[in-house]
Structures are given as structure tokens and as C-alpha cells.
Design brief:
26% of the residues lie in helices and 26% in strands. The chain is an alpha/beta fold. Helix 3 crosses helix 4 and helix 9 packs across helix 10. The two termini are 19 Å apart.
Length: 301
Amino acid sequence: MSVRELVVLGTASQVPTRHRNHNGYLLRWDGEGILFDPGEGTQRQMLRAGVAAHDLDRICVTHFHGDHSLGLAGVIQRINLDRVPHEVTAHYPKSGQRFFERLRWATPYRATVEITEAPVAGDGVIAETDAYTLEVRRLSHSVESYGYRLTEPDGRRMLPDRLAAHGIKGPDVGRLQREGVLNGVSLDDVSETRRGQRFAFVMDTRLCDGVHALAEGCDLLVIESTFLDEDEELAVEHGHLTAGQAARVARDAGVRHLVLTHFSQRYSEPDEFERQARSAGYDGELTVAHDLLRVPVPKRR
């Protein structure tokens, strides 16, 4: 059975707290796992969340600040220790190549798994599979940073009433799907477009064109809200978003489920992030993330 969900491994910005680990997010997309921004402690959080090294097919790093990347060393070594039987691809800003190499080879270990390095250098599509297209957009932070967007190809939804009207049933339905036309009836006559699902991951950034492009039409948007609105000047200065800014992005982009995360240690009341997001006009499904949370990708409309 296919599973599409976000497993939240950590939600703290800059430093961990008693209740929040450094960043780490696993997207399960059917039979594939994409690990985003493995901060320090990710390997242990994976254990607590029931995530195995074998579950990882891609690692996507937005930028090379420590709270988003220091867990790479442990995760990569665990992939090799467990002899993951498939290739694992790592995406990260090309400008941080030296940091990736330092983390990948931080200490001696026996390399048993093919880790394919696929650095990112500019906006565009970075991977295409039968299940999705993965693309990136440049963000606005103090170091080069990219957000990631996964888009499922559109499919077709068969319409039972139209099939019945044309007398098509049983094996003939599959034949029509394969061949496109059956006895003068086209696939368009008995089906409609089924919009592919969309997921975006947006970390450390000010408001910029990349943020809006990544969020547009998403079913699930994971986005940083390091600061509350009263500290917007600090957010701009340090290259971050507030809860209200993130929510307005989601509102304007038509996001179905908004996940706020990457919280500054200065705040102790997570309910305030939800209150400010709602005050900003976002009325979709909203989650203020906490460690070890599982968030399902919304079902198709």
C-alpha cells in the first residue's frame, strides 16, 4: 500500500532545546524516502521515529548552516553501515561542495553504498522519475539556499457514470486506459484529469520570488516560521520568515495543508504561531510541528 506522509524528526532553529531536536524531515512518497535537512541528532531521531537507513533514497540539503546539515556525517555513515542495497542521491548547493565533502568523510568508515552527489546550481528541475519531478528555487538567506518542490504527474480519473453510458466495463476499462480509444470511445470521453499532488519544502529565507513559486498550489507546504510577527525586523535581518508571513504565502498560493516549523528557542508557546497564522488569513489545514510528528499528505480532491 502506498504511503505519502511527512515524518518530522526535528523542529528547532539554530540550537536544539529540551523539547526540540535540530531539523530533520523525511517525506515518504509511496516506496521512496526523501530526507530533508538532517541536522545534528537526526540519526537518533530516525531511530525514535521508526525510520531506517534503508528508507532513504534521496537527501536534500537546503543550505549548509549546521542546524540543517551537521547530521549528514552520521546519516551517511549509517547508510553504509547498514549496507543499504540501493543508490542514494544527495542534493545540496554546489557552492557548499567543500562542506558536503567534509561531512561525508568526517571520520574513517567503510564505504559500501553508492552515494551519488548531485549538487544544485540554479533554479530548475533536478530529478525526474515516473512518480514525480523534483525542482529547486533559490531562496534569500545569508548563505546560498534552495527550496525543494515535488510534483506528481497529472493522471486520469475514470468516471463510472460515463463508462456505464458507453457500456464499457470489466477488462475493457483497462484496455481503454492502455490504448486511449475503444470502439470509437476515447479516454477523454469517460475520464477527467486527476491533478498530481504537490509538496514543497522551504527553509531559511526572507520573502522572495522563490518562496512563492515553491508554494504555489501545494497540497502540503513545510515552511520555516522562525519568528513571531512582532520580531519581523529580526526575521528580515537574519534571513527568516515570521508565522504571519509564512501563512500569507500559503494563503495566496492556495496551499491545502500548511506545516510551520524551525522555531527560535526564544518562544515557549507554540499556540501563538497558530494564532498568528490564522490572523494572517490562512484558513486551510494547519499544523504547528513538533518532533516525531507524522503528517499525511492530503488526499486528492
